[in-house]
Each structure stands twice: as C-alpha cells, then as structure tokens.
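ok so I'm stuck.
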Amino acid sequence: AGSLVHPLAMYLEYSLSGVNKSLDVTVGTTQTGNKNTYNYKLSVEKADHLTNGRILFGRGLRGRHFDFSVNITATAAYINDINIDIAQTKRRV
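replied:
not stuck anymore, here's the structure
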C-alpha cells in the first residue's frame, strides 16, 4: 500500500488568443471507488504572448490515481510547459 497524495496546483506557461478565451482543468480521481471529477478555472488574464498561470486545486483532493484534462477555448493556443505540484500526505491506503 502506498501513501495518498494531494495535488496542490498546476503551473502553466501558455498563450491564448481570440475574443472568447478560457482555460480550465478537469481532475478525475477514483479514490472513493467511484469516478469523481472536479473542474478548476484559470483566472482570465491577458495572454496573447507566453505568460505564466497557476490553477489552485481544492484542499480535499486526495488519492493515489488522478487524471488531468486541460480544456481550452481560444482562436489559437500554445502550451509551452505544464507542471503539477503534488504533496504527500501522512495517510496511507
């Protein structure tokens, strides 16, 4: 059995162009035995050129298995880098 982890945040280096633009992340976990999904939005900011962004995840998000989907609405989008900050919890499965 392994330790549970807590995804803290996703850091992105990205650019989005267009009039209606947004970026959000859907996080899926099966820790309860059922599939649960949670949606987190990136704050809207000027991102016509490469910029940095951070999406903070909820404090209750814990488990061993996660999937992350990045959902983008834009005329054009570019993701240069993605990093997910994960902390181990003291709890074990």
